[in-house]
Structure formats: structure tokens, C-alpha cells
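Figure 2 data, in text form.
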Amino acid sequence: MEKYVSNSGLEFIILSRDGKNCVVQFVGTGYTRTANIDNARAGKVRDLYNVSVYGYGYYGEFEKVPYWKQAKQLWQNMLKRCYCEKDTRGYFKWGTRVDNKWLCFSNFLSDLPSLENFEKWLLGQREGKEKFNLDKDMKLPGNNVYCREACSFVEDSINKSAGARSKLADYYRNISK
């Protein structure tokens, strides 16, 4: 079998061909996908399971829901805050991390609608209303892992206020009654 190299430097092989379509397999991840044979030979195929975002994240396969671009930006910013040493506002120095499941954008995108206040975040994205931020430690004070179980969307004004933690502690105490 002949090995090819994608434009991003990843080796792949062509497993089969049917007319102008072919099935390629990336050597590093084992990911297989269908591609146009001319694009494959030119290296214009991507391995969606190759770690390519801040040294930890990868895209996976996902359906493009109406809010996927906003979700992608949110996901990339989350990874940046956790893994980019140059991000002065980030959490790199405190060991905050992203759950392994959420290192894959496809999983993150699937879980988003289940997070508290998702609809409000979405509305803020679409209509410029009150902005909501993805928060990892309001539900679980002191938590340092971004994950489905701990995250929720919190009003920007509350999240950034000086007394945010005490206000949110009160908020969660009241809803759990």
C-alpha cells in the first residue's frame, strides 16, 4: 500500500477506490473516511481525530447544528484557558483541565443542550441579549474540571461580579430546596 501525507503532515493510506471516491485511513489514529481521490492525492484530507487544538483537543465527526460555530468558539476558548501557557487570563497555572470526553468537540457539542441555561446562552448568542458564560465551579465550588456534570451557563454580570461566588452559592442553595 502506498502512503500519502496530508497537508497537515499526517500519513494516510488509500484502502479502496470506487470511481472518484476512495476510503482513506490515517496511520496515527486509525480514523477512516471517504474522500475524493484527487483531494486525497493532493493531501487535502483531514484527520478529525488528530489532536490539533492547544495540544489536547480534536474535532471528531459532528453534525453542523445551527449554533455549531458559536459552540466551536466556546470549546476552543475553554481549551485555551486550560492549556495555553500564554493566556494570561487562563487557568493553566492552577491545573484546571477539560474532561477527556470534552477534549473531542463532537462530544462537547452533543452535551451542550443538556447544560443548565443552554437556551439562555443560545439566545444571548443569537440576539445579543444578556450574555451567559460557561462556568465550571458554580455548581461544585472549587471544581477545576470542565465537564458535563459540573458545568452550567451563568449570567456574565453575575459571573464577573465581586460577590459572584456567594451569590451563586445562594442561588444553588435556593434551587435545591
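Caption note: The longest helix spans residues 68-83.
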